[in-house]
């Protein structure tokens, strides 16, 4: 029989080892690259989740909302109850965000979509305040010209019809909200996503030939490569 | 099964049972929050979800630790049974701590 003290010590040590294992297996906390909330610039985020199962809706919200809330002056988070609904809520939230802030980033956690059509009716002077648009939709990478024409400064999308965007979203959202410049955030997140998806070697047909899920998920960014979450409106360049 | 074995296994069984129970409660909460018929009040939405995770995590972690502590004094088990006991305690503690880690992220410590 071990003594009470040694049993307590072994139990505490074992608990600490499991906690260390957990920390080693999860993503480490990130440091902010630059101080948040620079003067003279108010930034908002509008996030949109399409109609999926409740568990996925919760997962997206649990991950995105705290992350966005600590990085933006104001956050509008909309979740669809049915396929195609919440258009009015989306438009009014985006309009309000654009009216109240200097810049607005738009995060679309939605399967292959045409949400650009909900943005285009807004006045051009408001759309000009759109900064980053990240669209998780499969094969929505080709919408970059449309989003730029609508006023977005930068656009990030996925090219493939079978895109594991949620994996990329985790890495990208963390990097972007912690001040990593856009192009670097996308490159780093693409690499991290490819590592996670490397176990899926099956190739699926695309117009340019068979590609793995990692290749189809590989996000493409357009717009200023040094753009960061803290970029001020005066630094905007097209 | 002798009394000492039962003493060690009881908290482990409860600890492991808390995970599916917590998961079911969490799913029910998600359905309430994102159900098509109704919406949860804001105060019960995200804080409610994290409270469920935290309660499950804290209880299952504490019970896994208690089970491990009691099991350390059990010398009557064959080696394979002891190994299984340690693996189950580890798994329960790992997931319990994960839930608490999620809570830490929510309150912006991470």
Features of the shown structure:
heterodimer; A: 238 residues; alpha/beta; two-stranded antiparallel sheet; 9 helices; 8 strands; B: 110 residues; mainly alpha
Structure commentary:
The complex is a heterodimer of chains A (238) and B (110). Chain A has 238 residues and is α/β, with parallel strands linked by helices. Chain A has helices at residues 4-25, 54-69, 87-100, 116-119, 124-127, 144-150, 165-177, 182-197, 213-217; strands spanning 43-49, 74-79, 103-109, 130-135, 154-157, 203-204, 211-212, 220-222. In chain A, the strands form two sheets. In chain A, strands 2-1-3-4-5-8 form a six-stranded mixed β-sheet, sandwiched between helices. A two-stranded antiparallel sheet of chain A has the order 6-7. Chain A is globular. The model of chain B has no long low-confidence stretch (mean pLDDT 88). Chain B contains three helices and no strands. Chains A and B meet through helix 1 and helix 2 of A and helix 1, helix 2 and helix 3 of B.
Mean pLDDT of chain B: 88
Please give the alpha-carbon distance between the first and last residues of chain A.
74 Å
How many whole angstroms does the radius of gyration of chain A measure? 20 Å
Identify low-pLDDT runs of chain B: none
How much of the sequence lies in strands of chain A comes to 15-25%
User: What is the tally of beta strands of chain B?
Assistant: 0
Task: Report the average pLDDT across residues of chain A.
Answer: 90
**Multimeric state:** heterodimer
Helix/strand-derived class of chain B? mainly alpha
Helix content of chain A: 40-55%
Biggest sheet: strand arrangement of chain A: 2-1-3-4-5-8
SSE class of chain A: alpha/beta
Radius of gyration of chain B: 17 Å
Summarize this, please?
Chain A has helices at 4-25, 54-69, 87-100, 116-119, 124-127, 144-150, 165-177, 182-197, 213-217, and strands at 43-49, 74-79, 103-109, 130-135, 154-157, 203-204, 211-212, 220-222. Chain A is α/β, with parallel strands linked by helices and 238 residues long.
């Amino acid at each position: 029989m071990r003594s009470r003290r040694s049993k307590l010590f072994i139990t505490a040590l074992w608990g600490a080892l499991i906690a260390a294992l957990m920390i080693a297996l999860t993503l480490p906390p990130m440091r902010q690259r630059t101080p948040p909330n620079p003067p003279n610039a108010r930034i908002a985020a509008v996030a949109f989740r399409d109609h999926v199962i409740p568990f996925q809706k919760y997962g997206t919200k649990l991950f995105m909302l705290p992350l966005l809330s600590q990085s933006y002056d104001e956050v509008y988070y909309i979740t669809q109850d049915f396929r195609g609904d919440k258009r009015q809520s989306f438009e009014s939230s985006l309009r309000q965000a654009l009216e109240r802030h200097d810049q607005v980033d738009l995060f679309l956690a939605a399967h292959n979509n045409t949400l650009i059509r909900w943005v285009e009716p807004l006045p051009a002077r408001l759309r000009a305040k759109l900064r980053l648009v990240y669209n998780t939709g499969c094969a929505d990478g080709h919408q970059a010209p449309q989003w730029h024409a609508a006023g977005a400064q930068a656009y990030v999308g996925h090219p493939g019809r079978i895109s594991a965007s949620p994996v990329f979203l985790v890495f990208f959202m963390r990097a972007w909200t912690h001040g990593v410049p856009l192009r670097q955030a996308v490159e780093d997140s693409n690499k991290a996503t490819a590592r996670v998806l490397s176990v899926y070697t099956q190739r699926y047909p695309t117009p340019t030939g068979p590609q793995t899920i990692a290749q189809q998920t590989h996000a493409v960014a357009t717009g200023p490569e040094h753009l960061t979450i803290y970029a001020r409106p005066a630094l905007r360049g097209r | 099964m002798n009394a000492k074995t039962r003493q060690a296994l009881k908290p482990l069984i409860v600890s492991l049972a808390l995970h599916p129970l917590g998961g079911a409660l969490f799913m029910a909460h998600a359905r309430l929050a994102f159900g098509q018929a109704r919406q949860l009040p804001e105060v019960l939405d995200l804080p409610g979800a994290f409270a469920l995770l935290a309660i499950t995590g804290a209880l299952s972690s504490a019970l896994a630790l208690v089970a491990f502590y009691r099991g350390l004094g059990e010398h009557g088990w064959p080696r394979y049974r002891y190994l299984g006991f340690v693996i189950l305690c580890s798994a329960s503690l790992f997931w319990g701590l994960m839930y608490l880690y999620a809570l830490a992220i929510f309150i912006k410590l991470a």
